[in-house]
Design a protein that fits this description.
With 248 residues, this protein is α/β, with parallel strands linked by helices. It has 2 domains: 160 residues, Molybdenum Cofactor Biosythetic Enzyme, Chain A; 76 residues, Ribosomal protein S10 (Alpha-Beta Plaits), CATH 3.30.70.600. The protein has 9 helices and 12 strands. A 6-stranded mixed beta sheet has the order 2-1-3-8-7-6, sandwiched between helices. Helix 3 packs across helix 4 and helix 8 runs antiparallel to helix 9. It is elongated, with a radius of gyration of 22 Å. The two termini are 28 Å apart.
Amino acid sequence: MSTSVSACILVIGNEVLSGRTKDANLSYLAGELNTLGIQVREARVIPDDETVIIDTVNFARQNFDYVFTTGGIGPTHDDITAASIAKAFGLEFGHNPEAVAMLQSHYKPEDLNEARLRMAKTPKGAILIENPISKAPGFQVENVFVLAGVPKIAQAMFENLKGRLTGGATVLSATVTTDLTEGVIAKELGLIQDQFDDVEIGSYPYFKEGQFGVSLVLRSVDQMRVESCQTTVKEMIEKLGGKLIFSS
């Protein structure tokens, strides 16, 4: 099993870029993927623009093990993700018989209009991703998984596809929080990072109840290295006269 499996998440939608819609899918997918041993290395928010979608998907699928897109697969004119994915792969695009059957089982014949049938269009040969909520499926083409933008539906789709994923080593983490500021610990923390080059050390300052401080998050696939680094960070805080507020 590979020790490092990468993923890229593409959030597609003008409404997210405009601020009208707050994305909730990135944090969910990143967390779920991490538990499977798949590390999200990059995430982008891109517009409902065919050229941008094609170029971004083609870059991502060539540079990451897995690509997940959210948004743009509904029944309206601005939902162009599915057709753009087809063009990115150079595939024909049209009604998927299996997807049509799913919608026919969900809607009354008089309610299954042309707009709703648009949600049954996929690139030719795509593997469907079941949608137990509104039935309109997502789909997979090679290493690209196309999900809905509505969080509950995206999450349900992910539950139905994650059995197709093969992960590597799970990234483990530990957190140390102190009342020292970044300016005080920067030099010593840099030396610790040099010592533990296999541990990612993130520094996140905060201001709470009139008090400045910093939370240090340590991440690695090696539990012993995380623990050793955590001990070293605690010793640094003590050496600099700081207070250890939280450690886990």
